[in-house]
Design brief:
With about 130 residues, the chain is mainly alpha-helical. The protein has two domains: about 45 residues, no CATH class; about 60 residues, no CATH class. The chain is about 40% helix and about 0% strand. It has six helices and no strands.
Length: about 130
């Protein structure tokens, strides 16, 4: 998509709290590398009354293994198969154990074994 100039939030949300507008701009930044982090958003002045660090658990980020499907050009049937396999993980201990092993062995994902390099979307090719 072509690059476009963003909307002026101050005119779009007339009368809104300036801190709220600032936080919204930072949260809606398109580039994830420039977007505000969850920790920084919680510490933002607009969130001051809600921010309670002792009750804000922090966890590990989701691994690339669980999102490697995003880099492939998949058909509707492929997505159906992947969804079915995901559902089955919660109903079959053997499949869940294999999933855990694969996650350690292939931290960036295992779908390359299934789809190969030719189905990787252009923007993700090296």
């Amino acid at each position: 998509m072509p690059k476009r100039k963003g909307k002026d939030f101050n005119s779009l949300f007339k009368g809104a709290n300036a801190d709220a507008i600032d936080l919204m701009k930072k949260m809606l930044t398109f580039d994830p590398a420039k977007r505000i982090t969850v920790e920084d958003a919680l510490a933002h002045p607009y969130m001051a009354q809600l921010h309670y660090p002792d009750d804000e658990p922090i966890t590990k980020p989701v691994s690339a293994f669980d999102f490697d499907f995003e880099i492939y050009s998949l058909r509707k049937e492929d997505y159906k198969d992947l969804i079915f396999e995901e559902i089955m993980l919660y109903h079959d201990d053997k499949l869940m154990k294999q999933y855990e092993k694969d996650k350690v062995a292939y931290p960036d994902g295992i779908l390359s074994k299934r789809y190969g390099q030719d189905r990787i979307r252009r923007r993700y090719r090296k």
